[in-house]
């Protein structure tokens, strides 16, 4: 709170006159983000005058200028109470219903399909907040708009099942693996900060001090979770290159393996969601490099398939990854046993679950994204 007061140019006591504690301030900030989303929606609806593509373009532009709101929505749910999260979700749903009323007025889509498409669209229009775009702001918005227009034209019930290679365990000491599994589960449920080493030990039937025989610190545990998730992603890459007959097929298989991995274990989400906890740790650079190398795998295939630049491919790839990551992060539907198996879309014969047709292009068009089923 002292840091926030200093950044705001006020004293800490004056800050407490407005907010009881940091939790209350966080909640107010997230609600302000929902209010801002409503304001952007009202403005875009008025400007679009019933034109769905104009509305999408306006929302992409607005969210590109308001990346802090997208960041709060993505990263803070773990730290809010169930009641607070419920109110945030209810407010967001109310906004997204307005999106659906315009975008699907002339389509015969089921309610669940409309909900999935607009939640997915929210991920896409806010995806510039998760990476540094190497295009100008205007060009990035054009790329996102084209992708979003393609996305809302999809039909989720046309999905063809996910193709996920058999699970391969990453070799490791059994006790260390047990500790990593338990820590990943606890970090996923409560966030990295609140979980103690004693709690991690208790989850595997040992004391907290015994955990230190395997890992020197809690930060090391988080780093190892990141390394393990990176190794599993590489297994998916190897399988895709082995089974795929060309780059289009390889990209589709990599999409499937990513969705299968992130929906079947908490490691990937834990690594993404808690990266800020390692900001001052030298190993954070290593984990960032692992993530960047993996994203580059997708981008390389994109540029090969469509003969586009790295920057254009990066915007589309990050938008597609945001779809999947957000669906798992906010736990929309991930408890359903069929999520990795049945959810997804079909797009003009190029099919996929969740993000199978991650980014396809027609000769004179921008990237086209498949959708997630959050």
How would you describe the overall organization of this protein?
The chain has 374 residues and is mostly helical. The chain contains 17 helices and 2 strands. It has a two-stranded antiparallel sheet. Strand 1 and strand 2 form a beta hairpin. Helix 12 runs antiparallel to helix 13 and helix 12 packs parallel to helix 15. It is globular and about 65 Å long. The protein starts with a helix and ends in a 22-residue tail after the last strand. The C terminus is likely disordered.
What's the overall average pLDDT, rounded?
83
Work out the oligomeric state of the chains in this entry: single chain
Largest sheet: 2 strands, antiparallel
Helix percent reads: 55-70%
Main sheet: strand order: 1-2
Instruction: State the order of secondary-structure elements, H for helix, E for strand.
Output: HHHHHHHHHHHHHHHHHEE
Number of helices: 17
Low-confidence stretches: 333-354, 362-374
Class of secondary structure makeup? mainly alpha
Distance between the termini: 34 Å
Secondary structure: number of strands: 2
Radius of gyration: 21 Å
- What general form does the structure show? globular
Strand content: under 5%
């Amino acid at each position: 709170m002292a840091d926030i007061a200093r950044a705001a140019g006020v004293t800490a006591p004056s800050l407490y006159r407005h907010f009881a504690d940091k939790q209350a301030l966080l909640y107010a900030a997230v609600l302000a983000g929902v209010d801002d989303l409503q304001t952007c929606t009202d403005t875009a609806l008025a400007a679009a005058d019933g034109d769905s593509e104009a509305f999408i373009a306006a929302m992409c532009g607005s969210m590109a200028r308001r990346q802090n709101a997208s960041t709060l929505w993505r990263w803070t749910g773990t730290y809010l109470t169930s009641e607070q999260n419920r109110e945030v979700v209810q407010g967001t749903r109310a906004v997204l219903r307005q999106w659906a009323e315009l975008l699907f007025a002339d389509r015969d889509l089921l309610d669940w399909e409309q909900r999935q498409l607009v939640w997915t669209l929210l991920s896409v229009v806010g995806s510039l907040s998760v990476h540094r775009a190497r295009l100008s702001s205007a060009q990035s918005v054009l790329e996102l708009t084209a992708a979003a227009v393609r996305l809302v034209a999809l039909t989720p019930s046309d999905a063809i099942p996910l193709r996920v290679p058999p699970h391969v365990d990453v070799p490791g000491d059994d006790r260390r693996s047990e500790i990593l599994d338990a820590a990943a589960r606890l970090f996923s449920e409560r966030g990295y900060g609140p979980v103690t080493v004693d709690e991690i030990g208790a989850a595997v039937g040992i004391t907290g001090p015994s955990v230190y025989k395997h890992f020197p610190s809690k930060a090391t545990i988080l780093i190892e979770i990141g390394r393990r998730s990176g190794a599993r992603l590489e297994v998916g890459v190897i399988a895709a290159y082995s089974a795929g007959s060309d780059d289009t097929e390889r990209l589709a298989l990599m999409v499937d393996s990513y969705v299968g991995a992130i929906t079947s274990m908490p490691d990937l989400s834990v690594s993404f969601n808690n990266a800020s906890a390692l900001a001052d740790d030298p190993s954070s650079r290593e984990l960032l490099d692992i993530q960047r190398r993996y994203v580059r795998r997708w981008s390389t295939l994109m540029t090969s398939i469509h003969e586009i630049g790295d920057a254009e491919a990066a915007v589309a790839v990050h938008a597609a990854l945001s779809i999947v990551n957000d669906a798992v992060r906010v736990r929309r539907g991930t408890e359903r046993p069929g999520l990795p198996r049945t959810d997804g879309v079909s797009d003009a014969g190029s099919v996929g679950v969740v993000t199978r047709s991650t980014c396809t292009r027609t000769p004179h068009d921008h990237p086209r994204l498949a959708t997630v089923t959050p």
